[in-house]
Specification:
The chain is an alpha/beta fold. The protein folds into 2 domains: 7-158, VC0802-like; 180-223 and 251-408, Rossmann fold (3-Layer(aba) Sandwich). Helices cover 25% and strands 19% of the residues. It is built from 11 helices and 15 strands. It has an 8-stranded mixed sheet. Strands 10-9-8-11-12-14-13 form a 7-stranded mixed sheet, with helices on both faces. A hairpin with a 2-residue loop joins strand 6 and strand 7 (152-158). The chain is elongated and about 75 Å long. The two termini are 25 Å apart.
């Protein structure tokens, strides 16, 4: 297949981030963009597939469907897959794994479907060579994805390899860190693109701060990754990927500050390591500081986004006091700001004591959360000055967004102003002015690891002359260049 040929692809994401991902794909040049359940389908060429993996902040995986069929039982799955010429995608010297996603009463367990796919592949090679490729669960060369919805089956190649939320900059973490894709989604939903100061007063390991800096500077989220799945494909175009990887045309100037703080010195120490590893130290100011000790905002206007504790490890009374303090600090210190708080208990939001202007339904792991927006102003709401900023063109109507439920069937009690029935697949179109807003086990490294303070240099990639000095390119105001694929 040549570079210029278009083919269908699927970008997987988290529930309620489908609209943001669709906008990202359109900006990259995707065609036929349609929103589904925790996924966005689109068409494009090989260049776009590479770009989507490197540039999409809210994508978890980019899949390339290669075979569609129907099956009423396991034998039919096996028979259908035995018809594929597997040498187009796999060889005896490469390892593989199967990722199965099943929504069907026909099959009791997704692992059963995965075993049938594995058997079909192994038997196909055994029939021809009396040998079979090996399965690797931990580090496969090729990952196949089989998706079953009732009797409709789609076999895809996983072009990403490891989930795209594993950016490559995190070398240490606090307890229950925020998923990178969720953090980027929160920022993108807020509308902030670097036009003002960004504050996270409960920053933990710094995920929101780092994602915000990368957004403001136009740094691709995949730039720190060691590898992508498509690099092991038979048709991998190294020259094309190098061109995509080293394209810095999206870089931007950022003249404001990103400010992070936390009550925990340990959290700030971890955050500093991650920020340094991402090459963003010059853009992010960190301090050990409880939220309640803020007596002055970093700037007259800005955006504050934070993910406070939810209450799993603290008492109800303490949780109420915490959120009450958040509301009090917002009201008295952060006037002129738009604040976004992520939580999942209504009681916590009630304790803030401020009226929200919008809310977004999001999922933090299995927790069904909300991110509420608070426009902090002095005086009466109707007396607040009109500001010509990045929010001026956005319609404040919440009608559809407040009650938008995920199409996979998640329901929220006492919020059903709209029908809970699944909506049909629809073609995506970007929002226009004054249009209503519609509304994993983490890689862990011990923070005492003696490698934690060393500069990160992706294996097999060269970032130019400064890579030998141990400096990150962004610390020298340079974008990564001269990507080279080394031996892996």
């Amino acid at each position: 297949m040549t570079q210029s040929e278009n083919y269908p692809m699927i970008a997987k994401t988290m529930a309620e981030l489908e609209d943001v991902l669709a906008e990202e794909l359109i900006a990259l040049g995707a065609n036929d963009v349609e929103i589904g359940t925790r996924m966005v389908s689109f068409t494009g060429d090989k260049r776009l597939m590479y770009k989507a993996n490197v540039h999409c902040r809210t994508a978890l995986r980019i899949l390339k469907p290669i075979y569609n069929f129907k099956a009423e039982n396991a034998d039919e799955v096996y028979d259908a897959l035995k018809q594929i010429n597997w040498e187009d995608y796999l060889s005896l010297d490469k390892t593989f794994s199967i990722d199965a996603v099943v929504f069907s009463h026909i099959f009791n367990h997704s692992k059963f479907v995965a075993y049938k796919v594995k058997d079909a592949i192994a038997d196909w090679f055994a029939d021809r060579y009396e040998k079979r490729p090996s399965v690797s669960v931990t580090n496969p060369d090729i990952v196949f994805n089989i998706h079953v919805a009732h009797n409709k089956c789609t076999l895809s190649l996983d072009s990403s390899g490891e989930s795209l939320h594993k950016r490559g900059y995190r070398i240490a973490q606090t307890e229950a860190p925020l998923n990178e894709v969720l953090a980027a989604g929160m920022i993108l939903k807020s509308g902030w693109r670097g036009e003002s100061v960004f504050v996270d007063p409960m920053c933990g390991s710094g995920t929101l701060l780092i994602e915000a800096a990368m957004i403001a500077l136009g740094i691709p989220p995949g730039i720190h990754r060691q590898s992508f799945g498509f690099e092991k494909w038979n048709d991998f175009d190294e020259e094309l990927f190098s061109e995509v990887y080293n394209d810095d045309s999206g870089s931007r100037e950022f003249s404001h500050r990103i400010v992070g703080s936390d009550i925990s010195p340990k959290a700030i120490a971890i955050c500093e390591k991650n920020v340094r590893n991402a090459g963003l130290k010059k853009y992010i100011d960190l301090s050990v500081k409880p939220f309640q000790q803020y007596v002055e905002a970093p700037a007259p206007h800005g955006v504050l986004i934070t993910n406070p504790p939810y209450g799993e490890r603290i008492k109800v009374e303490e949780l109420s006091e915490l959120y009450s303090m958040i509301g009090e600090r917002l009201k008295h210190v952060f006037t002129g700001y738009n604040a976004y708080i992520l939580s999942y208990k209504k009681e916590s939001f009630d304790s803030i004591g401020l009226k929200h202007s919008r809310r977004f339904f999001l999922f933090n792991g299995a927790l069904e959360c909300e991110m509420r927006e608070y426009e902090i102003f002095s005086g009466k709401r109707d007396d607040r000055p009109k500001k010509e900023d990045f929010r001026e063109k956005r319609e404040r109507s919440d009608a559809s967004h407040y009650e938008r439920n995920s199409k996979e069937g998640y329901r929220r009690s006492k919020r059903a102003e709209e029908s809970d029935e699944a909506k049909p697949k629809r073609e995506f179109r970007p929002k226009r002015e004054h249009e209503a807003e519609k509304p994993r086990r983490e890689f862990r490294r011990d923070i005492n690891d003696d490698k934690a303070d060393k500069s990160f240099r992706p294996r097999g990639r060269s970032f130019g002359a400064e890579s030998s000095s141990g400096k990150r390119p962004y610390e020298a105001d340079k974008k990564p260049r001269d990507h080279k694929r080394g031996n892996r």
